[in-house]
Amino acid sequence: MARAGIEGRVNLRRGLLGFNKQVKQETRKDATEAALIAGIIGKNTGQNTIATTPSDLSIEPKGNRIWTGQMYEDFDVDVRQRGTSIEIKLGWLRRKRKYYTIQEDGGVVQTRRGPITVSGMHAITNAVMAAQKHLDDKGIR
């Protein structure tokens, strides 16, 4: 009888450990998927901000910050998993130009017409907020 009780506890323990392992795997998979989707949402939001924020530099009214398309194309996302952490980076990750920073944060640009004050478009802030909202909606911090 004592042996049956021990075997029962061992089987119960094995079952609980297996269940715990399965829950951890599913949670990791769900978190990874949510991070990838959040990254896509963030990238789309950042690019949308570039495409819909009026330009202060154009002589004619212009409803976006796209001139050559390079700043729009360079806005990117990188999602990496390291151990139990997942990191989402948004913005100009591969090519950083002073022009992008002035467009993002605002500042003064010297032109042939003289200095022009550029208002910030806040593409990175908008991208991060959209990605964070997706993660919050999934219950992920």
What is the CA-based Rg, rounded? 24 Å
- Low-pLDDT parts are none
Query: How many domains, in number, for the residues?
Result: 1
Overall shape? rod-shaped
Structural class by sheet pairing and helices: alpha+beta
Mean pLDDT: 90
What amount of the residues lies in strands?
A: 15-25%
- Can you count the beta strands? 4
Q: What is the ordering of alpha helices and beta strands?
A: HHEEHEEH
Strand order of the largest sheet: 1-2
**Percent range for helical residues?**
55-70%
Keywords:
two-stranded antiparallel sheet, 4 helices, 141 residues, 4 strands, alpha+beta
Kindly describe this structure:
The chain is 56% helix and 20% strand. The chain is of the alpha+beta class. The chain has one domain (2-137). Strands 1-2 form a two-stranded antiparallel ribbon. Strands 3-4 form a two-stranded antiparallel sheet. The longest helix is centred in the N-terminal third of the chain and has 51 residues, at 2-52.
Q: What's the gist of this structure?
A:
The chain is an alpha+beta fold and 141 residues long. It is built from four helices and four strands; from the N terminus they run H-H-E-E-H-E-E-H. It is 56% helix and 20% strand.
How is the secondary structure organized here?
Elements: H1 2-52, H2 70-74, E1 75-82, E2 85-92, H3 98-105, E3 106-111, E4 114-119, H4 123-137
Antiparallel strand pairs: 1-2, 3-4
Helix pairs in contact: 1-4
